[in-house]
Design a protein that fits this description.
With 208 residues, the chain is of the alpha+beta class. β4 and β5 form a beta hairpin. The longest helix has 23 residues. The model has no long low-confidence stretch (mean pLDDT 88).
């Protein structure tokens, strides 16, 4: 008697390379993680930004109706003049930031804002046989062009007001990266200490 394990998963359908109207709908604060870049260990504070493509829809799961394709990019949360995030934002708004403007920028202002994305395909560095989508440029919509209304609900994950339900709904690889951050570990430590203090208080209130 033979028993076979199989891989029934299908290759993920890539978004075709090209230019698309898009709208920012998701902002996930990953937090500060340690990475090795060109042999050097660095601490980087990361954010993950998500856009939907309202003109490109399909039924991803039976019975859920048409949903837009989405694409995400991870950025270091920095407004340094050489930072990729700042360059992307400058391209999106059509002008660079003054040094005063770049001192402090609330990235959640991007939520709900429309733009044009140029999406390209790139081979994976780890496995060149695997190809993934990447945002090459983000730019303003051309004058006279209107982006359709947002379809997905707005999603914001921030350590200032951590949404546990949203966190649990995220793909495992994103949750794992968030769990590895300094901010998540500090938040969990604080919650553990608070629970310990509550337990002590309950014990001290016992009538014997």
């Amino acid at each position: 008697m033979e028993i076979y394990a199989i891989n029934a998963s299908k290759p993920r359908e890539l978004i075709q390379a090209g230019n698309y109207m898009a709208r920012c709908y998701q902002m996930l604060e990953i937090g500060t993680t340690t990475e090795t870049i060109e042999g050097k260990t660095v601490r980087l504070k990361k954010i993950r930004i998500g856009w939907e493509l309202p003109t490109e829809t399909k039924e991803f799961k039976e019975g859920e109706g048409q949903k837009p394709y989405v694409i995400n990019e991870e950025y270091t949360l920095s407004m340094n003049e050489k930072a990729t995030l700042r360059k992307m934002l400058a391209s999106w708004r059509g002008k660079d930031f003054t040094e005063e403007e770049a001192t402090r920028f609330n990235v959640t202002k991007l939520l709900g804002v429309a733009c044009q994305l140029n999406i390209i395909h790139k081979p994976s560095k780890k496995d060149p046989s695997r190809v993934y989508e990447k945002i090459a440029t983000v730019s303003p919509l051309m004058k006279g062009i209107e982006c359709p209304a947002q379809i997905n609900k707005t999603m914001v994950l921030s350590y200032s007001e951590f949404d546990s339900a949203l966190f649990e709904s995220l793909p495992d690889f994103i949750k794992d990266k968030i769990r590895s951050s300094e901010e998540y570990k500090a938040m969990n430590l604080q919650h553990s200490q608070e629970r310990a203090e509550d337990a002590k208080q309950v014990e001290s209130d016992l009538p014997f």
